[in-house]
Amino acid sequence: MADLKLAFFASKRPEAQQALPLLAARYGNCPEEEADVVVALGGDGAQLDTLRRRFADGKPVYGMNLGTIGFLMNEYQLDGLVERIDAAERASLSPLRMLAVDIHGNEHRALAINEVSLLRQTAQSARLRIAVDTRVRMDELVCDGIMVATPAGSTAYNLSAHGPILPIGANLLALTPVSAFRPRRWRGALLRHDARVDIEILAPDRRPVSASADNQEVRDIARVSVEADLTRRLTLLFDPGHALDERILTEQFAF
């Protein structure tokens, strides 16, 4: 597609900033609102920043890794970008919708592509009550925190907390504790992609807890509701053979 309109977004990393003018000179660089595809340069953080701006228009995002891990990114190459985008495989994702109510009664709403996580703010463990689809499943979880992760986010913070890796097409969410103390052996749960998770913080004044939708944090919360926003779809583009499903499968056999 010779007339493909591209918009480039570069993270603050020096490598990304150096690549930006080279790519813009080769392929042009139109405003994101006029582009057919938005190209993110940097690491996974740059990809997530770019995807968050796509909640309204749903334009596809093609990432090139000029960061560290780059799990959501393709290999960086200056040549053949239009041809690579034309041949790219698509992965479709829905973000998580978080509604957090703080101890003062204020509501905070945010969307997350990777996970919604709750973490203790002090040395005191968090005490949480967990309900799934309005039914209480755990009266009290004593832990450092808990998260609800999407398949795209299952290889990020979720994996570090020993949560399961989820293929994109699994239609599941991972509910994963962080350093569970009681019940000590609880390792979390797999939920349907349309499940709603309600988490109540017990004694929030003495055991304060924060909630984060990816990197958007709210402190001193009293309760949180999390569910997938199935009305929104995000599209990631991957080079053939490097699609997200393949990366997730590969990760499950890594040691």
Question: Care to describe what's here?
Answer:
It is a single chain. This protein has 255 residues and is an alpha+beta fold. It has two domains: 6-93 and 233-252, Probable inorganic polyphosphate/atp-NAD kinase, domain 1 (Rossmann fold, 3-Layer(aba) Sandwich), CATH 3.40.50.10330; 96-228, Sandwich (Tumour Suppressor Smad4), CATH 2.60.200.30. The chain is 17% helix and 40% strand. It contains five helices and 18 strands. The strands form three sheets. Strands 1, 2, 3, 4, 5 and 18 form a six-stranded mixed β-sheet that branches. Strands 7-6-17-14-9-10 form a six-stranded antiparallel β-sheet, with no helix packed on it. Strands 13-12-11-8-15-16 form a six-stranded antiparallel β-sheet, with no helix packed on it. A hairpin with a 4-residue loop joins β6 (96-102) and β7. The longest helix is centred in the first third of the chain and has 14 residues, at 14-27. It is elongated and about 60 Å long.
Main sheet characteristics: 6 strands, mixed
The CATH homologous superfamily name of the largest domain equals: Probable inorganic polyphosphate/atp-NAD kinase, domain 2
User: Outline, from the CA principal axes?
Assistant: elongated
Total count of domains: 2
- How many beta-strand elements? 18
Arithmetic mean of pLDDT: 93
Low-confidence stretches: none
CATH architecture of the largest domain: Sandwich
